[in-house]
Write a structure and sequence with these properties.
This protein is of the alpha/beta class. It contains nine helices and ten strands. Keywords: ATP-binding, Nucleotide-binding, Transport.
């Protein structure tokens, strides 16, 4: 049965930086278990949308509800509670270079769950690493990992808090075609296993085709089109269709 509960509702959100109007009244709804891809040229507002969504930026106008709470009026403690239910995978993996894989994962886990016993931390680290197939990398430093391995560890770190929503910002950037597909398939399998909703910002159309129930195209701060990969590939709008060539 299809999910009927929105985990994210963005209504008429606008955001400007000085005279630069980056978002111009966008609307996005994400349902439980749904995977949304957002594509668009550089500077179209994709990353700003994600930052507004988690309260790293404040929208100038509009409403952003996450798990039913309007974060534009949320307290600091409410924002932290919401963020504890969201996992992030950034463009570069965003691992701390001075920490081993074990320490990177433990740092994230303790930040979200301060009362965990050491053996619980260890068990959750191993579970997260097993989910991405990298148990043997537990004591390696980020500098010893390939680009694909760094992305896998970044995904493990996003998964370790057992999030209900995953946010990906260019997760396959800088990877070769085969590794990009492996990372995308890994993201999909873990999401399906955990029934996690996701939003992915990407320029990688092969990943978009694999990963999204729904694709939205941002143009000049507005949602220009939305639909499945197949629907948008056949769009009558030449600009929208240009992404799929």
């Amino acid at each position: 049965m299809a999910a009927t509960t929105p985990v994210i509702e963005i209504k008429n959100v606008s955001k400007s930086f000085g005279d630069n109007e980056v978002l111009k009244g966008i609307n996005i709804t994400l349902m439980e278990g749904e995977d949304l891809i957002i594509i668009g040229k550089s500077g179209s507002g994709k990353s700003v949308t994600i930052k507004c969504l988690v309260g790293l930026l404040t929208a100038d106008e509009g409403e952003i509800k996450v798990f039913g709470t309007d974060i534009t009026h949320a307290s600091h403690s409410e924002l932290n509670e919401i963020r504890s239910r969201i996992g992030f995978l950034f463009q570069n993996g965003a691992l701390y270079d001075s920490m081993s894989v074990r320490q990177n994962l433990a740092f994230t886990l303790k930040h979200h769950n301060r009362g965990l016993a050491p053996e619980e931390v260890q068990n959750m680290i191993m579970e997260a690493l097993e989910s991405v197939g990298l148990e043997e990398a537990i004591d390696k430093m980020p500098s010893e990992l390939s680009g694909g391995m760094r992305k896998r560890i970044g995904l493990a770190r996003a998964l370790i808090i057992k999030p209900e929503i995953l946010l990906y910002d260019e997760p396959t950037s800088g990877l070769d075609t085969i590794t990009s597909r492996e990372i995308t398939e890994l993201m999909l399998s873990t999401q399906q296993k955990r029934k996690t909703a996701s939003i992915m910002i990407t320029h990688d159309m092969a990943s978009a085709k694999l990963a999204g129930n729904k694709i939205m195209v941002l143009k000049d701060g507005k949602i220009s089109a939305e639909g499945s990969y197949e629907e948008l590939e056949k769009s009558k709008d030449e600009w929208v269709r240009s992404f799929f060539i």
